[in-house]
Amino acid sequence: MIRTILIHPDPRLKKACEPVAAVTPDIGKLAEDMLETMYDAPGVGLAAPQVGVMKRVLVMDCIKDPALAPRPMVLINPSVTWQSEDLATYEEGCLSLPDQYAEIERPAEVRVQWTGLDGTLQEEQFSGLWATCVQHEIDHLDGKLFIDYLRPLRRQMITRKMEKLKRDRARDAEGRG
Ligand code: NI
């Protein structure tokens, strides 16, 4: 089931999420819905608060080449256990900030530990787009957006654009109703 993606500004996108206590069937369904929603958008990552669920769950798949097999990943309670001193800059976007992009600098490589859907502890080192994506999504679980790395003026400009987008969408929905 495709879920509605929250658009910034929304108080749920600014709050830290609760750890998942147990990997229940509800969490499995949430992860399945989040992957479907992410692929549909389309995007390379999605965090649970973006669909209004305040739990520490994220999904991602940074395989962009359609010739390669997809790699849907579900990370429950993820945490960064190591980060490289080397930094990398990527132009980031976010499904909660449609059509907004900015160059953000982050550690080029990170090691992340998480619980899988099968309840086992997993760990992997990420680089390239995967490293950027996993850090961006973990930020979401802490109530942080990529625009929080920008200067206040630029952040305010983007926020105003998003407020207008939400007003326009609400008005269009009314017009259809
Ligand atoms: Ni995002």
Any chance you could write out the topology, listing elements then pairs?
Layout: H1 25-40, E1 45-47, E2 57-60, E3 73-83, E4 87-94, E5 97-107, E6 109-115, E7 121-127, H2 128-141, H3 152-176
Antiparallel strand pairs: 1-2, 2-3, 3-6, 4-5, 6-7
The structure holds nickel (II) ion.
Task: Tell me about this structure.
With 177 residues, the protein is an alpha+beta fold. The chain is 31% helix and 29% strand. Strand 6 (109-115) and strand 7 (121-127) form a beta hairpin. It starts with 24 loop residues before the first helix and ends with a helix. The longest helix has 25 residues, at 152-176. The chain is built from three helices and seven strands; from the N terminus they run H-E-E-E-E-E-E-E-H-H. The chain has helices at 25-40, 128-141, 152-176, and strands at 45-47, 57-60, 73-83, 87-94, 97-107, 109-115, 121-127. It is globular. A five-stranded antiparallel sheet has the order 1-2-3-6-7. Bound molecules: nickel (II) ion.
Mean pLDDT metric: 97
Q: Give Rg in angstroms.
A: 16 Å
Report the total helices: 3
Q: In which order are the strands of the major sheet placed?
A: 1-2-3-6-7
What would you call the structural class? alpha+beta
Largest sheet: 5 strands, antiparallel
Shape by Cα distribution = globular
| Distance linking N and C termini | 23 Å
- Give the proportion of residues in helices: 25-40%
> How large is the share of residues in beta strands?
25-35%
Q: What are the distinct ligands in this entry?
A: nickel (II) ion
Q: Return residue spans where pLDDT drops below 50 for at least 5 consecutive residues.
A: none
